[in-house]
Structure formats: structure tokens, C-alpha cells
Specification:
Serine Threonine Protein Phosphatase 5, Tetratricopeptide repeat; about 350 residues; mainly alpha; disordered N terminus
Length: about 350
């Protein structure tokens, strides 16, 4: 596909913002100057070009933190909660833009996580209009994005096709007539062509897995089988080797979560073996404290669902939390998180 129309090296950058190494930075909103901090001496709120509002600055910083954590943990439920706490739903297009633009420079795993995240957040907390607006901004900025990431147009066409398959965008969004810029037209045409032909939806559902990168589903299946093997053989060394070979540290929270759920369904002896396993893995540095806490929090947050299968799940989790704090791999402060979380979960309708 030719991109020769897209190269306009002499084109002035919008107000000098959005150049190479500069796109998507805090304060670069609709060509506003790069403003990061209202306390910065260069910040001039009297500027006739609209600087980023303080709300935008805070929102972008919050978004960056949420995405750092999500690309590490893969926990979409956490993102939904954090995004609601961040407030400013009128800025959600920024979040949509950031999820995708951040992943463009990373690997297929993160692009898959980005594609999986959006359906989790749609239509609540992120509305249809904000999804459309986020993708529209990305299309408008493709020239700039391409300077930094030559494959940006190709990746964006894949994101667009996936968003249509996931019902986030209507197929009509891919009409090339809606774009003003040549590179955006080409990207929409490419997205449309990805959706044509037999089994397109099936292909697109695995669009980021085609590179041989591990799909989230495969990592989760393998994680469960590693745990099952440990539960039968109790071989810590073998289990550690298998988990290291999986080479998916950002899914260790899932290993922890599944170990906890297994503990809830075990007798005391089985629970102690799982405490021993988690204790070993945190001491050896294989599993980080953050991933342990995320795994426990995921169980607290989904307690209503857990209790459908394990009616006394709350009590059993309490026992496991105590054992884990005593073993030293779960901070004592988690006991409060656990109580608060369950109090909130208890108020939700079953």
C-alpha cells in the first residue's frame, strides 16, 4: 500500500506540538501546546492557544498510571474501577486514544490486551460516542504517529477491524469518505478489507495472536494446568520451572488467584501446600508482592461469583488471608483491604 501521499515533511506541526517523540504527551490535546504541569514556569494560562486544562493534565497522568498497571496485570476489572474513580467521563476519548497509542509501541501481547480492554469498558463507563471520538483522533494523528512508529497505520487498521468485530464501532465507521487525510483513508480501506472474506471475524478475533505471541487464553490455560500438576505431585521445583518457562510474569496475579480459588476448595492440608508454594515463589522473587496482592484482590472483588460455587467462600478466604499474612508474602495491611472489599461486595445485589 502506498503511503506517498502521507509524507508531508514541510507541513508545519500543529502549534509546534505533536512532533516526533512528542505525540500523545500530557497536554497535547487538539494541537494544544505541550503543557504538563500548571506549576511549570513555562505554563501560561493566559496563552491565547488553549493550554491543557488542569483536569486534562490530571486525567492524562491518571490514565498513564492505570495503563502501566493494566499492561502489567492484565486485570480489566481493575481498570474499570480505576477509571470510574478518576472521574471526568467527558475525557474518556483520551483514555481510548491512550490505550491504543501506548500499545502501538509495545508488543502484540499488549495490543491484544488493549483490544480486550475496550469491550470490558464499553458501554459503561466508556460510552459509544467516546469510543468513536478516540478512534477519530487516532486517525487524525496518524501522520504524527507514523513518524515515531512506522507501522502505526497498519496496526490502527487492525484495531479498527477488531473494534467492529467486537461491536464497539459500527461498520459504517470504516467508510473512507469520512476521513480528510489520505493516510487515514488508506487505513480505513485496509480495515475494511480485513473484514471481508470468509471467517474474517474468526481471524480478527486472533489478530494479535498470529505472530506466534502467546494469546491470553493460552497463558491462562497453561497457568491452570501448572497449578493442577503441582496439586497432584507437590513438586515445587518442577512447578517453578514450568512457571518460569511460561515467561508471562504479568499473569502471575492469575496464578495467585487460581491458587487461592483452589485453596478455597481444599482441605487444610491442601491449603497449607498452596501457602508453601506461594511463600516459596515470593521468596525466590519469581512472583512479586504486587502480583500477589492483585491476585488476592481479584478474589475479594469477585466474591459474589465465587460464593455461587463455594458458599462459605468469604470465611475460607479469611482463613487463607490469615495464613498468607502469617507466611509473610501478603502484607498485613491487606486484611483491611479484604474487609472493606467484602463489605462493599456484600452490599451488591447477588
Amino acid at each position: 500500500m502506498s503511503h506517498h501521499h502521507a509524507e508531508k515533511p514541510d507541513r508545519p506541526k500543529k502549534d509546534g506540538a505533536g512532533g516526533k517523540g512528542n505525540w500523545g504527551k500530557e497536554g497535547e490535546e487538539f494541537g494544544a501546546p505541550d503543557v504538563v504541569d500548571p506549576h511549570d514556569p513555562n505554563y501560561d494560562s493566559g496563552d491565547d492557544k488553549t493550554p491543557a486544562t488542569p483536569a486534562m493534565v490530571v486525567f492524562k497522568a491518571g490514565t498513564a498510571n492505570i495503563l502501566d498497571e493494566y499492561f502489567a496485570s492484565g486485570d480489566a476489572g481493575d481498570v474499570a474501577r480505576a477509571l470510574k474513580e478518576l472521574g471526568h467521563p467527558e475525557l474518556h476519548h483520551e483514555f481510548v486514544k491512550a490505550v491504543i497509542s501506548r500499545s502501538l509501541d509495545l508488543k502484540d501481547r499488549e495490543r491484544e490486551l488493549a483490544s480486550e480492554l475496550l469491550p470490558h469498558l464499553y458501554p459503561n463507563p466508556i460510552s459509544h460516542n467516546k469510543v468513536v471520538e478516540g478512534f477519530t483522533i487516532l486517525l487524525e494523528r496518524l501522520d504524527d504517529l507514523k513518524l515515531d512508529i512506522p507501522k502505526a497505520p497498519e496496526f490502527l487498521s487492525m484495531f479498527l477491524a477488531r473494534a467492529v468485530v467486537d461491536d464497539l464501532l459500527p461498520p459504517s465507521f470504516l467508510s473512507p469518505d469520512s476521513a480528510d487525510v489520505e493516510i487515514a483513508k488508506e487505513t480505513l480501506i485496509k480495515a475494511k478489507s480485513l473484514l471481508s472474506g470468509k471467517f474474517a471475524a474468526k481471524r480478527i478475533a486472533h489478530i494479535w495472536g498470529a505472530s506466534g505471541d502467546q494469546s491470553v487464553k493460552r497463558i491462562k490455560e497453561r497457568t491452570i494446568s501448572i497449578l493442577d500438576e503441582y496439586y497432584i505431585a507437590h513438586d515445587i521445583i518442577e512447578t517453578e520451572k514450568a512457571l518460569r518457562d511460561l515467561a508471562a510474569p504479568s499473569f502471575h496475579y492469575y496464578f495467585v488467584k487460581k491458587a487461592i480459588l483452589k485453596a478455597l476448595d481444599s482441605n487444610d492440608n491442601g491449603r497449607d501446600k498452596l501457602v508453601k508454594l506461594l511463600s516459596n515463589f515470593t521468596k525466590s522473587g519469581l512472583i512479586s508482592e504486587g502480583q500477589v496482592a492483585t491476585g488476592f484482590k481479584a478474589c475479594v472483588d469477585t466474591m459474589n461469583d465465587i460464593e455461587l460455587d463455594t458458599p462459605n467462600g468469604k470465611q475460607l478466604l479469611g482463613v487463607f488471608v490469615e495464613k498468607s499474612v502469617a507466611a509473610g508474602y501478603l502484607p498485613a495491611t491487606f486484611t483491611e483491604v479484604y474487609k472493606d472489599g467484602l463489605a462493599k461486595a456484600g452490599n451488591r445485589p447477588k
